[in-house]
Each structure stands twice: as structure tokens, then as C-alpha cells.
Design brief:
- With about 160 residues, the chain is mainly beta.
- The protein has one domain: Porin (Beta Barrel).
- Strands 1-2-3-4-5-6-7-8 form an 8-stranded antiparallel barrel.
- A hairpin with a 6-residue loop joins β4 and β5.
- The longest helix is centred in the N-terminal third of the chain and has 18 residues.
Length: about 160
Amino acid sequence: MKKIVLLFSMLFILAITNEMKAQDYKSAIGLRFGYPVSISYKTFLTESNALELLAGYRGYSGIYSYFSVGALYEIHKPISDVEGLSWYYGFGASVQFFTYDDDYFFDDDNGSVGLGVSGVIGLDYKFPSAPVNLSLDFMPTFRFGGWDSGYYSWGALAARYVLN
């Protein structure tokens, strides 16, 4: 009886590990084409948990601009039908540093700082035969303080070079 339990336990573990395929890369760096355009660095902390660091810039005709830095914690789940494809979800935070043209918006202020809290859901694909990673995501964000407090939702396409 113990041998049968051991056999079924081993088969069960093999079945689970077959479905739980590790990500196809450890870290990648590139551009996130969204709002704002950002440099994106993603690194996996475990087989399915990743940290994505973002630094972006947005300007509008010399009237205003901002620099944003942030981080996202992402949980990746493989899509078993397509090699290298996974979906992910997560959350994060960011800080925005705004500057504006005093004559256009305000008489006595030329900058502010805002904080953002975000959720994220998306798809992540690592090409099997090339060191390229693409992701497509949706990121709802609440911003507090700064020039543009409120709710925003953005989508973005990221293209990254896989470092290892």
C-alpha cells in the first residue's frame, strides 16, 4: 500500500511540475511604449514573481512635463498552449515630478510632486529563438497630489532585450 501511495504521489508531483513551467528568462531591459514612454527593467524574483522597474518622461508642447519612477510586483501564470507566453497581474506604486509653464497654468507655482497606486494585468511573451521579450498590459492608476490627481487607465506595449 505504501508503494502505491508513493507511486501516485510521485506521478502527481510530476504532473504539477510539468504544468508549472518556469519563465523563459531571468531579466530583461527595454522600452515601454505607453503613457509615459518609459525605460522598463523586469527581473524575476522567483519562478513566477517578477519586479518591474519603470522610469518615464512625458512632455506636452512646452506647457508641462513630468518624470515618473515606479515599480510593479507581478505574478506570472504560464499559458500552456503557447511556449513562452504567460499572463500576469500585480500592483505597484510610482512618483511623478511635474513642471509647468507658469504663464500658461499658474502664477506662482512651477512644479509639484504626485504619488500613484496602480494595478496591472497583461500578457508576456519571450521569443523561443531570440533574446526578445514583449508584453502588452493594462494599468489602472490612482494619482494623488501633483498636477493631475485622479483615476487614469493606460495600456502599453513593452519590448525588451533579454539579458540572460
